[in-house]
Hints:
Elements: H1 5-33, H2 63-76, H3 84-106, H4 116-125, H5 129-137, H6 139-150, H7 161-182, E1 187-190, E2 194-197, H8 202-220, H9 226-245, H10 248-268, H11 278-294, H12 301-304, H13 306-325, H14 335-341, H15 346-368
Antiparallel strand pairs: 1-2
Amino acid sequence: MQLSFSDSVFIFFSSALLLTILGSPFLIRLLKKFGVVRKDERDFSFLIEGRLMKKGTPIMGGMILVVVITALTMLFNWHRATTYVPIGVFLLSALLGGADDLLNIFARSSRPVRTLGRIGLLIRKHKELKMRVWYVITFPWQCYKRFFYLLGSHPGHGIQAHEKILVQFLIGIIIAWWLSFKLGWTSLWLPWIGLIDVGLFIIPIIIFLVMFMANAVNITDGIDGLSAGTLLFAFGSYLFIAIQQGSRDLAFLIATIMGALLGYLLFNIKPAKYQMGDVASLGLGIILTAIAFALDRVVLLPLIGGIFFIEIASVMVQTTWRVLFGRRLFAMAPLHHHFEMKGWDEARIVMYAWTLAGIFSAIAIWLSSH
Length: 370
């Protein structure tokens, strides 16, 4: 018997939900066994009163999302035109995020970033000619690293910010190639106006939004249930749009992601049994952006992903304020930590965020049909 569109969507959703629920207890035990847990000496957020209770919580719980979403899609929804690139970049992001999570736990601190003045001195006075040549050749790279250091990215244990940005840039190029050259997308849809052809300018837009959303979702993943619940609203909006457009493959992919997220959320609400970690948060931001472009509703992303935009904007404002005025605007960034520092309970912050996300999603769905 031929399944209807809605029946298939429900099957993908419920299958992902069930597999995530069944696999999560095993993953939690595995992560604890190998010590993949939060450690207070490597997490500045433990400065917030009450967060020490999170010490020992597994932090790569997002692995279950990566496995379930990838497996169900590759087995039952694998199509060159629609799903293989989103899943490919999702896996690439998972490798990047997973490596960062593990290094944050087990690696030693990175070496301090040399000042440009120090490098200039070595170029002029190092006793070995080959080293002076080496410092000259690598000077642009050192400037690039120093730029992120000045923005507040201090050397830590994991993959450094300047390294993450390069990988995210590569992922953005892959998605831009897929959308622009394979699918022929060069237009942006605007409500009440329709399609506007922007030509090859679509490529930098895609790359910027991929990098932006990867970091925005990653930054939001700081309180039990915050990122997962907000992502459910965001993907739910695009599921409604995909069904409205009759885009079966993307609807099945989104339903799979939502089912896995809901199963994960059952173990992530306070007190969390595990936390997502970079292994999934980076990739979920990227795949959300890819879906937004594929459904030609990327202009709604700042509304559908409004909480993520607010969170990363708070970090950008905090950094800018500190550079310009030498002090902080917020007690701590991103914004959810500011509210924690002000004495708000985690559950209160999450409920407000979910409520706002629901409002944003409702408005975006309404705009989508205009």
